[in-house]
Amino acid sequence: MARQFLSGNEAFAYGVRLARPQVISAYPITPQTIVVEKLSEFVEDGSLKSEFIHVESEHSALSCAMGASSVGARAFTATSSQGLLYMAECLPYAAGGRLPIVMMNANRSTALPWNIYGDQRDSLSQLDSGWIQAYAENAQEALDLALMSFYIAEHKQVSTPFMANLDGFVLTHTYEVVDVPTAEQADEFLPPFETENKMSLTKPKNLGFSAGPDTNTFFKYKEHTGLLNVKKAVTEAESRFESIFGRHYSGLTENYRTDDADYILITLGSISGLVREIVDKLREQGEKAGLLRIRYMRPFPNEEIAKAVKNAKAVGVLEKDISFGNEGTVYTNVNSALQKAGISIPTSDYIGGLGGRNISPGEIENIFEELKQEKSAVKFLGIEVR
Amino acid sequence: MKEIIWHGRGGQGAFTAARILGEAYSLSENTFVLAFPSFGPERRGAPIRAFTKLDKKPIGNRSEITKADYNIFLDDTLFSEQAFDELKPDGKIILNTKKKNDDERVITIDGDSIAEKHLGLPITNTILLGALAAVSGYVSLDNIIEAVRQTMPPRLHEKNIAAVRAAYEEAVK
Fold first, then answer.
1. Among A260, A263, A259, A261, CA closest to A366
2. How confident is the model at residue A1 (pLDDT cuts 50, 70, 90)?
3. I want to staple A254 with a disulfide (CB 3.0 to 4.6 A). Which of A67, A293, A382, B83 is the partner?
């Protein structure tokens, strides 16, 4: 392994190179551009032997990746925001076709008003598309996730496309120290992609067919169980990863000082680092604060969340998302997990970081202070509603 | 944690300086760094800021720095009294200027003259890096030079290394 000083986008591109996809099709969009540029440089300098296909749109980018995956190639694409939405028609297509494509999404706000900065409304609007969704906290996790995403997506009992999310700018454009594994280590971790689910002259198959009312539910149920199997595949991938690279990951969630916590803040993505620091600060002051970081939004970690918060007095959710006319989508999902487990504690939703707005340490301390009131509420950070 | 704010104009290399400093610090074991620009549309000549955070433990806070240990100005037309609001209690300003400044918190260096001599261009990012290395001791001169080699295109190495050395020696005085 070699220590390198890389941005989140570059780190992800290094991870993709280690996974050796045979086909990359992508269209550039801020703040994803650098990952695609970097991969095109790798193909140009010969360090990645891959077919790099320049396409005219995101819709074509994913269509192209689906074509490649359909003949048994390992395929990668990347997008962000409006690009993801333009691609949206193809997302359930790839998932229903059980094509284990990996896509990096640089989380960015969606128009209007036009905004290039980071929030998570783009990917969270696509939770129901049938894709696995993971969220990285830092550049090291981004690289490691790039490598693990192929393993998980291509797992025989999963065979589902994987969307790896990196917060736009604060993660994609920030430089950090990253351990870059060697190609030999990566090859030991990730076997070549092999599937029966492909077009083949020797074993002809019908792909991309229709299924009417009588059989459709069976296909959708299989798609659902494929996603549920991700949990097992993540455990397998992470223990294999740890044995080769020595870095530990904790499955669908990461619990930080939640064991005896009275007040737990649940969040996802790069803001978790700041929440962890605030938890430490509050602990030093004798406050029983904890952080639960959601690493995977699909499959949703229902049991993991219920288990971590069952003894807490109140829970907050901090998310860069709003489902207009209702509440933040992460909050809806968390409440569902608690309700199913019979946990009845106050929960509050904090909607912050929209359009890249900074979330300050003081705001997070304030959330923990408000959780002590043990009342449920939905609030926008930075807006006082009287 | 050591926090450095870089002020420059688009094209002067403020973010490159923030990155080279981070790279130089990361050459020592058990170091953690975040380096990033103020995010937004980039225009040549427009004021920009960049940030470097250095620590011996993981850094969770990715927000822009509001109070710095060193507040660095590549261009003195960007310097004003507001610069002092961005300082920690013992914080210092490093200012590229030909003018004198009597405030004890301000360290001045005539970076433009060094740039003219070694680079032939009024680009002072690596010069201010050399000055920072000398006055702060956060990174060694050798590590700055190594980071210049790793970060900049090869054709820029020798003259920038000469500029870094000249600035380092000037600032040590």
1. A263
2. low
3. A293
Check whether A360 has a pLDDT greater than 70.
Answer: yes
For A2-245, CATH gives 3.40.50.970
* Consecutive H or E run containing A371: helix A361-371
- DSSP conformational letter for A386: -
Is it true that domain A253-380 has CATH number 1.20.120.80?
no
The answer to whether residue A186 scores a pLDDT higher than 90 is: yes
Q: What is the pLDDT of residue A81?
A: 98
Which residue from B26, B60, B62 is facing A3, i.e. has the nearest CB? B26
B148 vs A contacts (CB less than 8 Å): none
Greatest CA separation found in chain A? 69
In chain A, domain spans: 2-245, 253-380
* Dihedral sign from CA coordinates of A386, A334, A357, A28: negative
CA B29 from chain center: how many Å?
22
Q: Are A309 and A343 in contact (CB under 8 A)?
A: yes
Q: Does the predicted interface ipTM exceed a cut of 0.90? A: yes
Contact A358 B63 (CB under 8 A): yes
Looking at beta carbons, which residues of chain B come within 8 Å of A173?
A: 36-37, 39
- One CATH from 3.40.920.10, 3.90.226.10, 3.90.960.10, 3.30.470.10 for B2-172: 3.40.920.10
- Do the Cβ atoms of B34 and A361 come within 8 Å? no
Q: Is any Cβ of chain B less than 8 angstroms from the Cβ of A256?
A: no
**Is residue A274 reached through a cis peptide bond, with omega within 30 degrees of 0 on the bond before it?**
no
What is the distance in angstroms between the Cα of A342 and the nearest Cα belonging to chain B?
34
Q: Which residues in B lie closer than 8 A to residue A247 (C-beta atoms)?
A: none
Residue B141 has pLDDT above 70, yes or no: yes
Question: How sure is the predictor about B44, in pLDDT bands with cuts at 50, 70 and 90?
Answer: confident
pLDDT category of residue B173 using cuts at 50, 70 and 90: confident
Alpha helix locations (H) across A87-161?
A: 90-96, 121-124, 139-154
Q: How confident is residue A386, by pLDDT bands cut at 50, 70 and 90?
A: low
Distance from CA of B53 to the nearest CA of A (A): 10
